[in-house]
Amino acid sequence: MRTSWHDQVEVVHDGRVDVSIVRLPVDQRGLTVRPLFTEPRVVVVPAGHRLAGKESVSVTELADEHLLQDPAAVPEWRDIALELRKRDRPEVPHVNSVEEKLELVAAGAGISILPLSTATFYNRQDVIGIPVEDIGPNQVCLAWLATRRSPLIDAFVDAAASLLP
Questions:
Q1: Rounded to 10 degrees, what is the CA torsion of 104, 39, 129, 56?
Q2: Which residues lie closer than 8 Å to 60 by C-beta, 6 or more apart?
Q3: What pTM does this model have?
Q4: Which of 16, 113, 147, 156 has the fewest CB atoms inside 10 Å of its own CB, making it the most exposed?
Q5: Rounded distance, CA 106 to CA 132, Å?
Q6: 128-147 residue pLDDT tens
Q7: In 19-150, which ranges are continuous DSSP H helix?
Q8: Which of 127, 155, 125 minimizes the C-alpha distance to 142?
């Protein structure tokens, strides 16, 4: 089952799945969470953006940008963001997919911070991914109900972990 950013743990709590692959941060209450791997994150900007030609950027160079996601997902940006200090922060549209987010970035509506694998997979000519030097990596984990004991869950978790270096 494919999940979105908004329901990646909800599907565990309501029983639609036994185990979910999640990207932190998520609400971990009632869950057992096992880290699988981390990966760097990049900022995605429109191809014509002032930062588009740089090999890397620092988070301070993003302080005056409009972030098209929940600021809690990027605490390094949240702590310095100029728009969060204003009363009239531009609206962040509800986005259901990476494709929608990249369309907004390409249209110049703002920037987004994505895991490197996501930015690489959804490669587009009109959007550029740039490594951010001083932003934490993205953590990918398995999550399941803490109260649920199952040999099948244990076997799945062990198999998933064994496939990683």
A1: 130
A2: 80
A3: 0.84
A4: 147
A5: 19
A6: 999 999 999 999 999 999 99
A7: 75-78, 98-106, 116-121
A8: 155
